[in-house]
Amino acid sequence: MVFRSLVLFALLAAVAAAPAQRQKAVHERKILPSSFSRVGAANSTQALTMRLGLKNKDTAGLIDALMRVSDPASEFFGQHLSQAEVNAFLGPTPETKSAVNAWLAENGIKTKTVSPAGDWIEFTLPVKQANELFDADFTVFKHNADGSEAVRTLQYSLPVDLQDKIAVLSPGVSFGAMSKGPKVKRQLGKVSLAKRQSVPAGCDTTITPACLQALYGIPTTRATQATNVLGVAGFINQWASHSDLSQFLNSLRPDAANGTFTVQTLDGGVNVDLPGGILAGIEADLDIQYTVGVATAVKNVFISAGTFNNDDLSGFLDMINFLLGQSAPPQVLTTSYGANEADVSPAMAQYVALSKQLCTAYTALGARGTSILFASGDGGVSGSQSQTCTTFQPTFPAGCPFITMVGATTGVPETSATFSSGGFSNIFSRASFQDAAVSAYLASINDTNAGLFNPNGRAFPDVAAMGDNVEVVNSALAELVAGTSCSSPIFASIISLINDRRIAAGKSSLGFLNPFLYANPQAFNDITTGSNPGCGTNGFPAKAGWDPVTGLGTPKFSALLSAAMALP
């Protein structure tokens, strides 16, 4: 009798100690992208560092606040939010945080907060437990192009009572593969500091800072405001070289030869900066040379994200949270990397149905007063890089309405570059500030490409700049490169120079740009020739007004400055 009682007691104790089984439902499901292939089941003992994005308290309120301070017609234009005000929108409710942490504690999981607003929590557990906890099948997948491997699942589940409290799991179903650097077109050889000074007469074959100054009316006047900072995003071990920058400036901007940059790091990032530009990344060199070399005397910071990231997006989200944690983030941030929208989890990208995540983080940084610019991609209508496709492939994060996408032009006079990615998001709807311009374009092309794109999606790019035959110095060699990764730092530099004038006049930085840009189409050189072919088609034709190849066009510095200085 005593023996039976002890056995019963032991069984009851074991049941009491086991975590309660909650009813679950699938939260995200994805078909494996064609650019990846399955390698095999992940090792059951492999440790996964995971994150949960918690539902934000008031995403709609944050978007309203962003538009209020970004609309040039608003009396609140330029009155950017403080860090505390942004966090009040982003942070989860106490009920959300408590409920999610209680579920994880039931399963013996300890968490830590990894975002300034507390909307991301992180924990580590073995693959076997992750599979059980999320009813998932974590598997090793390989990217077919570069051979890199990642552990992901094609679906996962969450407790039914937490579905409206958790936005996304990472790593989960996102397969975003970041595009690499610009295409090298031609090596020009060792840089001669005395003999390779390009002049505008040669701009039809080689683009230099002097060409951009002539084309867009960019002044050589030095910036004066110490608080004005231009941030350059660096990823995938692309490092910027001071020696390459020095050679570039001495050759092509001798009047700004003392230009330099500082470095910030996250996720274990570094900036390996060896003599002679050894190990320098051509993307990082390009970005730094055309921010320092065009935005004369503006403070430049190279922000290097390392490989120790757990945001499912190669550090994209980590970088924005890193900047949101700063009391004074850069007034401009340019990024020349991206992915295909189809490879990224809708929950990670979406800001309406599942709230926040990356796009909402961009919203928050824009509300703080940062202009966020991205290269639109180099695959025409086929995506971030040229690929086989049956329907047009929008790039990511191009669909997020709260960043400014920059396409590319080529030649003098300018025409649209064939590689300039542009089109319409399949996730995000068209923003109100671009509705009139985009509607007019769609009406002008009638049924061209019907059924190959989402005509109601957020349209991109927003603007354009030179992206072909751009001269850079990499590892002490002069080279010509091409890609929208040239265009974004060029346009970002123009905005930084305008910010310098506004700050000197006692005004704020421009912050989120798009409402201002679409309200001032006269401030752009309208590009009306060329197209962006792909997917077996001619792509979209460039036309008068906005188009999904070059956006509103390329900048007229004086007109943009005049419009910006007229704002409060």
Automatic annotation (TrEMBL):
Cofactor note: Binds 1 Ca(2+) ion per subunit.
Domain Peptidase S53 as annotated: residue spans: 206-567
Full protein name: Family S53 protease
Cofactors: Ca(2+)
InterPro entries: Peptidase_S8/S53_dom_sf, S53_propep, Sedolisin_dom, Tripeptidyl-peptidase_I
MF terms in GO: metal ion binding; serine-type endopeptidase activity; tripeptidyl-peptidase activity
Location of the protein in the cell: Secreted, Extracellular space
An annotated GO BP: proteolysis
Domain of life of the source: Eukaryota
Main subcellular location of this protein, as a coarse class: secreted
Record keywords, A-Z: Calcium, Hydrolase, Metal-binding, Protease, Serine protease, Signal, Zymogen
